[in-house]
Write a structure and sequence with these properties.
- Helix content is about 30%, strand content about 0%.
- It contains 1 helix and no strands.
- The chain has one helix at about 25-35.
Length: about 40
């Protein structure tokens, strides 16, 4: 399978924590997506 071109997710409970913030792990993934030019 090739590299994905786009990632789609919902926010509440999936991307965001209960306090509506992003975890450091999530931020790292989002940064990598941006570096790899994968749409989010």
């Amino acid at each position: 399978m090739g590299k994905p071109r786009m990632v789609v997710t919902d926010l509440d409970g999936t991307l965001l924590r209960d306090d509506k913030t992003l975890s450091e792990a999530t931020l790292q993934v989002l940064r990598r997506l941006r570096r790899e030019r994968i749409l989010f």
